[in-house]
Amino acid sequence: MATNNTNNGLPLINGTLYSWADIVATINGVPLNGITSIEYSDSQEVVNKYGAGRHPVGRAKGRITSTAKITLYQEEVESMQEQAPNGRIQDLPPFDITVTYLPESGTVKADKIRNVQFSGNSRKWKEGDTGQEVELELIPSHIEWAQ
Fold first, then answer.
1. What number of other Cβ atoms are within 10 A of residue 146's Cβ?
2. How far is CA 141 from CA 9, 30, 61, in A?
3. By CB neighbour count within 10 A (0-12 exposed, 13-18 middle, 19+ buried), where does 99 fall?
4. Where would I find the H helices in 20-66?
5. Exposed/middle/buried for 90, CB within 10 Å: 0-12, 13-18, 19+?
6. How many CA atoms, within 13 angstroms, populate the side-chain half-sphere of residue 111?
7. Which of 38, 54, 74, 77 could cysteine-pair with 132, CB 3.0–4.6 Å?
8. Cα–Cα distances in angstroms (integers) from residue 100 to residues 38, 69, 133, in the given order
9. Could you give phi then psi for residue 20, rounded to 5 degrees?
10. Per DSSP, which regions of 8-132 are E strands?
11. Which of 93, 97, 39 is nearest to 67 (CA)?
C-alpha cells in the first residue's frame, strides 16, 4: 500500500480521506436516500496444521463468513415493504447492495455485498424521537471487495 509520509507519518489517499458524504449505497442500482449507516465484514477460519515437531508446518483456510447490517429511515423500509409479498421484507428475493466510494479527488471504488436478504424487521420508539431509524440485520452470501 502506498502512503505519503510527509504528514507526520499518516497515510493520505490523494490528500483526502473518505467521508460519509463520499458513499453511495444502492440496491440493484437504485440509490438509498434514507440510509444512515451500513456495516459489512467477512472473516475466514485460518488454522495452524501440525506435523513433526512442536510448531506448525503450515496453515489451512476454512469457510468465509460474511455479515452486514444497514440502518434506514422508516419511510425507506416502508417503501421496500410495498415491494414485498405480504409486506414482509424478509420475503424479498435476494439482492445485491453496492457501496460506492466517490471521493472528490481520487479513484472510485465499489464493494459489492452479494445475495442479501433481510432476517428481520422492527421498530423502536421512545419519547422525544423526531424520526425512526430502523436497523436491519442482513444475510449476505459473500462480499466482493473493491480492488
1. 13
2. 38, 20, 18
3. buried
4. none
5. middle
6. 16
7. 74
8. 12, 16, 22
9. -55, -35
10. 23-27, 30-31, 35-50, 56-73, 95-101, 109-118
11. 39
pLDDT in tens, the chain (147 residues): 554 444 566 665 556 778 999 999 999 899 999 999 999 999 999 999 999 999 999 999 999 999 999 999 999 999 999 999 899 999 999 999 999 999 887 789 999 999 999 999 999 999 999 999 999 999 999 999 998
Residue with cell 405480504: 86
Single pTM value for the model: 0.84
SS3 90: helix
Radius of gyration of the chain (CA): 20
> Facing residues of 30 across strands?
27
Q: Which residue has the cell 451500513?
A: 38
